[in-house]
Amino acid sequence: SVCSAMARYAGPRLPLIVKNLVPTLSSVFDSQRITTTAFFAELLNSNVVNDLILLETMMDNMTGRQKDACMLVRMLALRGLGNIASGSPEKVRKHGAKLLASMVNGMDDKDDPHNLVALEAMSSLSKLLDHVEERDIQSMLLHIAIRIRPFFDSEQPDLRQSSIVLFGNLTKFSEGNCEVFFEQILNGLVTLLLHLQDPKPEVVKACKFALRMCGPSMGCEGLCDMFLNHLREDRSLHYGEFMNNVCKHLMQSYPEMLNRLILTNLFYFKSNWVDIRAAAPMFIGFLVLHVDEDHGQQVDLDHLISGE
Questions:
Q1: Cβ proximity of 77 and 38 under 8 Å
Q2: Sequence spans of domains, the chain
Q3: Buried b (16+ CB within 10 A) or exposed e, 144-180
Q4: Regarding the domain delimited by 1-132, which CATH topology (the fold level of the hierarchy) does it fall under?
Q5: Are 160 and 198 in contact (CB under 8 A)?
Q6: pTM for this one?
Q7: pLDDT tens digits along 157-213
Q8: Cβ distance 164 to 175 under 8 Å?
């Protein structure tokens, strides 16, 4: 692109170009704000802005665009802030709290009917997480996990993929908040296991990644080993056999979870995706098969038979 060519060959002239473009970020014309924000977003992908001491200026300008009336400008500003992870990863640590706050604000964007700003916020946040300080993410961990959860079942495959990958990346930070985050893993577990039957391969790949990442936080070695061994990207999955074994481990380790797991599965009996609709009753069948007699009493049979 023009921008990467300029970053490579026009370095010394960039400070003046940036200085002249900054006023257009306040232009009354959407097209000018969009073009300048897109240009800055791409520049932040390159380390040259760091070398030329432009990073802080450009980052402040991108942060300032988060309240822009134009949705595309808000989306491109988040992309630019996420690109700092590629262009100047060492600066992410320094500005972690500010960058994370921008991503959370993007996910909470109120004027985002197609969730384009939220999508950009989730994919940018995944890029930044490798470089932020743990203390900066800890305070926001729960809010982010709860906020992205509804996207796991979005009709838009890119939203399903991005939110699930981000959830997998968040588990790296769950140790300090183990009990709190474990609750979020349990909330998402049924959905992630069912979406291994998702019609879109990129969503299946995201679920495999997220489950592998969740495994170590689940306190069940057998389950963790299963996720690591059977959910490798390059390995095809015999879903029925896999789910049978997963349910065996779940009922050995968390038999008190039976009713909760069943109720979540019942929700998917009405799923728009036929393979997921078929997977949910099979999941329940394996859970009931492997639960011991004492814990089996907690199943509400009327609820189950009516399938609601």
A1: no
A2: 1-132, 176-307
A3: bbebbeebbbbeeebbbbbbbbbbbbbbebbeebeee
A4: Leucine-rich Repeat Variant (1.25.10)
A5: yes
A6: 0.89
A7: 999 999 999 999 999 887 655 677 888 898 899 999 999 999 999 999 999 999 999
A8: no
